[in-house]
Amino acid sequence: MIEFRNVSKVYSTGTHALNKASLTIEKGEFVFIVGSSGAGKSTFLKLIMREEIPTSGTIIVNGMQLDKMKRRQVPMLRRTMGIVFQDFRLIDKMTVYDNVAFAMRAIGASPKAIKKRVPYILELVGLEGKSHNYPSELSGGEQQRVGLARALVNNPKMIIADEPTGNIDPEMSFEIMELLSEINKRGTTILIVTHEHELVENFGRRVITIDKGVVVDDTMSVSASES
């Protein structure tokens, strides 16, 4: 669950990235965050991940109050979320298997747990035949699936995807969104920042629009199949 109560963020440059934003995202929701470049979307994500601290207001994520959180508590917060990046951020010298296993090793998972969990997750994202391949041997869509597998492998409560379809073609973009929808059906909260309105319109989901640091709209979109 994510709750923002009158959250503002003003950077040292004087930029008002967010202005008294209030919203609640419940456990198990699938939400798009949209807005033009510079609207405040990236700051919104950074606040949720506790990369930034609000200038004022209260933020609660997965039962933890971020504006009062000590730095040593941040890793505990981040273990509750999986992050999917636009630029994949895979380790070139590691195989697909090891890229995903790396996320488990980072939290101290046992070799036995890794051996059991990683093949299951790779199968879930449709990469069971690619475990020994390197990122350079994969298409953009496949690389993004590795990124998604890595985000999922520690069974997070929430997946945060920052422009996850920005570097892949439209067909692959749709497949990634379908995959995220399936993951959402299993109970994982999905939060996606995107500028691709066509994708948003294809999925009947909640859409939060940010403009100049202000939440200007919060509605359910109507999918193309329903219209």
What does this structure look like?
The protein has 227 residues and is an alpha/beta fold. The chain is 32% helix and 26% strand. The chain has seven helices and ten strands. The strands form two sheets. Strands 6-7-8-3-9-10 form a six-stranded mixed β-sheet, sandwiched between helices. Strands 2-1-4-5 form a four-stranded antiparallel β-sheet, covered by helices on one side. Helix 3 (96-105) packs across helix 4 (111-124) and helix 3 runs parallel beside helix 5 (140-152). The protein starts with a strand and ends in a 7-residue tail after the last strand.
Give a short overview.
With 227 residues, this protein is of the alpha/beta class. The protein is 32% helix and 26% strand.
